[in-house]
Design a protein that fits this description.
The chain is α+β, with helices and mostly antiparallel strands. Helices cover 27% and strands 30% of the residues. The longest helix is centred in the middle third of the chain and has 16 residues, at 108-123. The protein starts with a strand and ends with a strand.
Length: 277
């Protein structure tokens, strides 16, 4: 059984305050983008007689872009183990084909984990509702809940409290550019002084040509200081005709939204463009 695992952009990201548990409360809008990883899950017993390396009933095969880390750190693996605590799941082989770059602020890993939960639910007829799937997804990571419904939402607290919003960018063009650098999220948070609510919900409902003045990402200042290429990409996106451009999440991918396709040539980057749905 196979599924496409899309990504998201953050439109605005305000760090509101630091929580007693050491995390931060944030305010951001998440919007789905049709750039995908591919997740395929098969019951091991149903596959032809092949040799796989299993860890706690899971064999992970990863292709496409390189995955840096242990298999046990992968959210697809963690999603299986999370459900296996409550359900008797047979051994499976998970094939993850990575197209979404790591360390981009696009939630690719979170999306992979969420799709794994949904695929296992279908494959083994667990009959979990979306509400129940979101509860499991929240245990995987703050962004994972978003990808269960995969609809525009205002995210608050640690990013796991989602309020659906009526934001339609349908027909707009999006260009995403990921430079060959990664921003350390923990270090980025350490450099930010929480500044209270940015009233993002109010500004997101205004015309997109007003967003540049009122909607910003708190992580950009730190990220651009560490990696000037991020600032350069944002500048080039505006020069090319984007009506709004920003870094997504804690970086390092930068996106631009425009009314028509744009072309930018920047060395040592991964680029993707599409029409928003």
């Amino acid at each position: 059984m196979l599924a496409l695992a899309g990504c998201k952009i953050n439109i605005g990201l305000q760090v509101v305050n630091k929580r007693a548990d050491g995390y931060h409360n944030i305010e951001t809008v998440m919007y789905p983008v049709p750039w995908y990883d591919v997740v395929e899950i098969n019951e091991a017993a149903q596959l032809p007689n092949q040799l796989f390396s299993f860890t706690q009933n899971v064999a992970c095969v990863i292709s496409g872009l390189a995955f840096n880390g242990n298999i046990t750190d992968n959210l697809c693996y963690k999603a299986y183990q999370l459900l296996a605590k409550n359900y008797s799941l047979p051994p499976v082989v998970i094939h993850l084909h990575k197209c979404l770059p790591n360390g981009a602020g696009l939630g690719g890993g979170s999306s992979d984990g969420a799709q794994t939960l949904m695929l296992l639910n279908k494959l083994f007829a667990l009959k979990l509702s979306n509400i129940e799937l979101k509860q499991y997804a929240a245990k995987l990571g703050s962004d994972c809940r978003f990808f269960i419904d995969n609809l525009p939402a205002l995210a608050t607290e640690k990013g796991e409290i989602l309020k659906p919003i009526n934001l339609a960018l349908t027909g707009m063009h999006i260009t995403l550019i990921k430079p060959d650098v990664s921003v350390n999220t923990a270090k980025a948070y350490a450099q930010i002084t929480p500044g209270g609510s940015a009233n993002l919900f109010h500004h997101i409902n205004n015309p997109i040509n007003t967003w540049q003045k009122h909607i910003s990402n708190d992580f950009e200042i730190y990220a651009m200081k560490q990696y000037p290429i991020i600032a350069e990409i944002k500048t080039q996106l505006y020069k090319a005709g984007c009506v709004y451009a920003s870094m997504s999440g804690s970086g390092s991918c930068v996106y631009g939204i425009s009314s028509k396709p744009i072309e930018i040539s920047i060395e040592n980057t991964i680029q993707f463009s599409s029409i928003l749905k």
